[in-house]
Design brief:
With 175 residues, the chain is mainly β. It has a single domain, classed as Porin. 3% of the residues lie in helices and 73% in strands. An 8-stranded antiparallel beta barrel has the order 1-2-3-4-5-7-8-9.
C-alpha cells in the first residue's frame, strides 16, 4: 500500500475463500481435500502491524464414508504487512494467531452426529498484498493450522488432531 494509504486508513474487512490440504487422517479414515472461507476485520495500530479477528467455516469429506466434518469458529491474531522494496502496490504479509474452533461431524443429511465443543488452536500464514486501487486489495496467502479436540464416538472418546495447510485468496476493503 502507498504511504498515503497507510497514513489514512487503519481498518479493513476481508473475505478469504480457500482450499484446505489435510496433513493427517481423521481417526482411522482418510481425509479428502477440503474448502472453506473466513471473514475478518483488522485494525492497524502501527505503520505495518495490526490485529485481526473474524469467523471461519472449513469442511472436509471423510473418504469412503457418509460423514464429513466441519471446523467452525473464530480466528484472531497479529498481521504484519510491509511494502516489498520501493513498491507502492505490492507488499508481503505475515500472520500469526489463534483459532477457537469446534469440530462438527455431520452425516449426508447435514445432521450433526457429534460436536467437540470449542477449543484453542493456532495458525501461521504468509502471503502477498496487492493494491488494486480505490482501497481494494488482493491477498493470496498460504498458511498452516492446528487444532486438537476430544470427540465422542458412541461410548468412546478419541483425541482428533485437525492439521492442515490452506491456500486462500482474500479480497480486502481498506477504510
Amino acid at each position: 500500500m502507498s504511504s498515503i494509504t497507510f497514513a489514512q486508513n487503519k481498518w479493513s474487512v476481508e473475505l478469504r475463500p480457500g482450499i484446505n490440504f489435510p496433513t493427517e487422517d481423521f481417526v482411522d479414515s482418510n481425509v479428502e481435500t477440503g474448502f472453506g472461507f473466513e471473514v475478518a476485520g483488522s485494525y492497524r495500530f502501527m505503520d505495518h502491524l495490526g490485529a485481526y479477528a473474524g469467523w471461519g467455516y472449513n469442511t472436509f469429506k471423510i473418504e469412503n464414508s457418509d460423514l464429513d466434518f466441519d471446523l467452525t469458529g473464530y480466528i484472531f491474531g497479529l498481521e504484519f504487512i510491509h511494502p516489498i522494496g520501493t513498491s507502492e502496490k505490492l507488499s508481503y504479509l505475515l500472520r500469526g494467531g489463534g483459532i477457537y474452533n469446534h469440530i462438527e461431524i455431520e452425516n449426508t443429511d447435514g445432521d450433526i452426529v457429534e460436536d467437540s465443543g470449542h477449543g484453542l488452536g493456532w495458525e501461521l500464514g504468509v502471503g502477498l498484498n496487492y493494491e488494486l486501487g480505490a482501497n481494494w486489495n488482493l491477498r493470496p496467502q498460504f498458511g498452516y493450522r492446528e487444532l486438537s479436540r476430544d470427540v465422542e464416538f458412541g461410548e468412546s472418546t478419541s483425541n482428533v488432531d485437525v492439521n492442515y495447510f490452506v491456500f486462500a485468496v482474500g479480497v480486502a476493503k481498506i477504510f
